[in-house]
Amino acid sequence: MLDILYNRRSTRKFSDKKIEEALVKQLLKAALLAPSSKNGQPWEFIVVDDAGLLNQLSLSKPHGACLLKHAPLAVVVAGDKTKSDVWIEDCSIASIILQLAAEGLGLGSCWVQIHRRFHDDEQTANEFICNLLHIPSHLEVLSVVGIGYKATDRSALGTKETDWQKVKRNSYSKA
Fold first, then answer.
1. C-alpha–C-alpha distance, residues 57 and 66, integer Å
2. Is 134 exposed, middle or buried (0-12, 13-18, 19+ CB in 10 A)?
3. What whole-number distance in Å separates Cα of residue 48 and Cα of residue 65?
4. pLDDT tens-digit profile of 28-43?
5. What share of the chain is helix, strand, coil (3-state, %, to 5)?
6. Structural domain tally of the chain?
7. Stretch (H or E) spanning 139
8. Cα 151-145-27 angle, rounded to 5 deg
9. CA 103, CA 129: separation in Å to the nearest integer?
10. What is the spatial order of strands in the sheet that 73-80 belongs to?
11. Contact 79, 87 (CB under 8 A)
């Protein structure tokens, strides 16, 4: 597990290779197995592999979504606001589980934040995606995870990136 965490880096450049359906199923199974508050599972996943829709998703917000245009797969992670008051946290966990599963399967991924982001001055990124993909109003898009085979490898994180100053024991400070 630590190897996956050290090696997982955001991938924004993907090869043209299509992801095999068996791997897509494994990715989705991992996301569906994510823990959630009271096992409420307030998430819904919309799998997008249509090039035209991926291009449209890349336009969902002005910055940070363009990687979706060249990703062979995107998973839209939406939360049901009527099922849980902690849908954001639960969907965040599912999103990262999806990314860790992708790394474990030899794929790259990148989280595109949608919640509380804007498409333009008139519309949120959530509204744009919900209109595009016909997502019902009781769901809100938290993220879109772009997934594909990595076009280039990035070096793994090393122990120097492990900032132990961020860890406290029993109290934040000795007061």
1. 8
2. exposed
3. 14
4. 999 999 999 999 999 9
5. 40, 20, 40
6. 1
7. strand 139-148
8. 85
9. 26
10. 43-48, 73-80, 139-148, 108-113
11. yes
Contact 16, 72 (CB under 8 A): yes
Residue 53 in tokens: 């829709």
Classify residue 67: in a domain, yes or no.
yes
Indicate the residue type of 143.
S
Structure token digits, residue 32: 């569906």
158: in domain: no
Q: What is the pLDDT of residues 66-115, one digit of tens each?
A: 999 999 999 999 999 999 999 999 999 999 999 999 999 999 999 999 99
Tokens of 105: 């399967």
Structural domain of residue 25, as residue ranges? 18-40+59-72+94-124+145-152
- Cα separation, 88 vs 119, in Å, equals 20
